[in-house]
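FIELD: query
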Amino acid sequence: MFNNTNSSKLNNASRQVSAKALQRLGIFILIIGILVSLFVFNSFPLFAIVVFLGMLSVYLGTRQLGRIGLVAQEFLFSQSEFQDWLNRWEQINGSILKILPSPRQQIAPVAINSDVTAYSFDRLVVCDSAAIAQLLIANNFHFENNCAILSITGYPESIFNTTMQMLRRNPELKVYALHDCSPQGVGLVHQLRTSPNWFRDSNVAIIDVGLLPRQIIATKRGMFIQSSNDSAQKAKKLAGEIRQSLSDEELAWLESGNFVELESFSPQKLIQILNRGIINSWTLDNDDSSLILVGDSGNSMYVVESFG
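FIELD: result
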């Protein structure tokens, strides 16, 4: 049962069941074992062993309950297996209209009406993956929030340069960084702040609305935590400026190879979280804002303390 609570092949619910079973087993051992050792065998050594085993089982079960959400989890099937199942389902039932294809690169610039390019946006959402940017665009997030949506990789490529020209016209622009909890993700704000393709030498306010290790560690809800050697190596190579913004516990978590992808959340949840981050940013100067200022006024960056 203890091994099950640490198993990367079980989900959080199954690990929780095993942890609670450990607690119940400990209580059973204490009650029955104490009665038998004292009144049947009248043996103090047996009594001591029973108490030790019972307390150990209760302790391990209680400890593991608090660690359920911090255990890395493996995918039990590969991406190719999933694609085969999906293809088979579509052969029988027809195409699934709401599944997005892989983001396509459109290098050739798209002509945009000059009347449109004369304006700008109040907000920009930058994602650390093209897939999340595509998801937000497909759900009309940009229309409903008067914001541009781009990925750090330059998606959508066909309008990237034009969009950036429009954005730089607005001195009141707010930038929202939406990212995975990964070495690449936690470095997104630093890249936006220092890259000449983005906002180097600019005083624009950058608001981190992505996933941070501190949020994973502090949350009481289980998240789909993955782990890989590649992620561990990238974490160890993080720039000094990025490492300074993270606690020792967060760095240790990342350097263990742990990461959480935004794609483990439903589209509806991601959109709700991003909407809440934008609404909270309207009150940046108020005491009740859930955003915390990091750095000086000349290098503004705000961080959300909880994800959703």
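FIELD: remark
The chain has a mean pLDDT of 83.
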